[in-house]
Amino acid sequence: MANSFVYNPPQLPLVILYQDRDLLVVNKPSGILTNPGRGEALADSLLSRVQQAYPGALLVHRLDLSTSGVVVFALRRKAERELKRQFAERLVKKRYLAVVAGLMTSKEGIITLPLRADPLNPPTQQVHAEGKTAETAYRVLQESSKDHLERTLVELRPVTGRSHQLRVHMAALGHPILGDTFYAPESVHQAAPRLLLHAAELSLFQPYNQQPLTFVADTDFVSSNGHWPNH
């Protein structure tokens, strides 16, 4: 994180989307770490807050600090192993919403740009021929011109789950996500009060009975029907 970064996570109550004996699903707000960072200053996290109410909760996957949306926790060790298997084998399907700068020429497509850590600028990632395979499907939902900035609401469906994948892929297309402190130019970074990236939907199989489950989380920058409010 940048030297000027001050961690000040929002003090909001947990928003529980679903719970059974095996798993707990929460709508993560932007601005809070999924799991604790190093040192007391970064101790507050979604995991630590969940564990205050559910002491046995176990982390299964993560969202970036600035990304909001669906996060799944396991409530039993056996469930944790099964859920992590589903993530590792790409059985979990994820749908994100993002607002990006500019109007996209292609209204849908698949981005296949390999990614690796940028050794000169951690924790950022970069497109690199020797990076790991990364694949993102995208589809334009809505376009707008507001405050002299053209912007597009897109649906993103990552096939792989690389660090910062959606942020790097959209920036590589020339359409960085609004509010992105790492990959957007200053004007695009300043165009939103937060990173406009939200994990809106996640589908997996219940760890015990293998029934399909889908979880949907609302966000502040787009309505539940997938459109900007007042547009």
Q: How does this structure look, described?
A:
The chain has a single domain, classed as 2-Layer Sandwich (Pseudouridine synthase), CATH 3.30.2350. The chain contains four helices and twelve strands; from the N terminus they run ββαββαββββββααββ. It has about 230 residues and is α+β, with helices and mostly antiparallel strands. The chain has helices at about 45-55, 75-90, 165-170, 185-190, and strands spanning about 15-20, 25-30, 60, 70-75, 95-100, 110, 115, 125, 135-145, 150-160, 195-205, 210-215. Strands 1, 2, 3, 4, 5, 6, 9, 10, 11 and 12 form a ten-stranded mixed sheet that branches.
Order of helices and strands: EEHEEHEEEEEEHHEE
As a whole number of angstroms, the C-alpha radius of gyration is 17 Å
Strand residue percentage: 25-35%
How many DSSP E strands? 12
Query: Uncertain spans, ≥5 residues at pLDDT below 50?
Result: none
Structural class: alpha+beta
**CATH topology annotation:** Pseudouridine synthase
Largest sheet: 10 strands, mixed
* Helical content class: 10-25%
Q: Count the helices. How many?
A: 4
Q: What's the CATH first level?
A: Alpha Beta
| CATH-defined architecture | 2-Layer Sandwich
Query: Which shape, going by the Cα principal axes?
Result: globular
Number of domains: 1
Query: What's the CATH H-level superfamily name?
Result: Pseudouridine synthase
Overall residue-averaged pLDDT value:
93
